[in-house]
Specification:
By secondary structure, the protein is α/β, with parallel strands linked by helices. The chain has one domain: Vaccinia Virus protein VP39 (Rossmann fold, 3-Layer(aba) Sandwich). It is 33% helix and 23% strand. It has 8 helices and 8 strands; from the N terminus they run αβαβαβαβαβαβαβαβ. Helix 1 crosses helix 4.
Length: 219
Amino acid sequence: MRSKLQRFADLRERDNTLEIGKPLFDRIKGNWNKLQFKNANPIAIEVACGKGEYTVGLARNMKETNFIGIDLKGERIWVGSEQAMDEGLHNVAFLRTHVLELEKLFAPNEVAEIWLTFPDPRPKDRDEKRRLTHPRYLDIYKNILDEDGWFKFKTDNTGLFKYTLEILADRDDIRDLEQTMNLYRSPLNSEHYGIQTRFEKKFSDAGETIKYLKFRFRK
């Protein structure tokens, strides 16, 4: 098992990871296709990707889309980076940054799809602004997402899911909203390609239903 410090050293050397201090970091905004992927394929991102299980899983299923997993924890994205390299997936990259920094790293409309899977629900009222479906985050997603791009959200947490639906209902820029409280028994089930993260399997095995919604912004 590699140490935490060794993993950080690995990330600095890998072509499929980007973090502050690397040569491309300050030039990547608006240039992901040109500088990172060297193709014109659409870009999808996973916010708070953790170990990148979902990012890598999606990349396996959609080879003509470029996927970027985003997380602040370097020791987590090391796992996804390693797996992508082992599988020879060239349509995967990982970005180490905070979600609040996304507008500095993606140009308006540069992203074709955003995934948010099983984020920390932040149930305490004082942590509401840290929920990744809080309006301040939705405004960031809206700016970088293409006009016809989808935002897709999965969670086991009923409180966070209902909170998100309430937030969306209060906005006037949400369109094409679809949602289900039980993804596996929904017509929307095929949209997640059967990919289960470690957390998803844990919660599902414990009897929790998986909630899912998707929508597009009206710009």
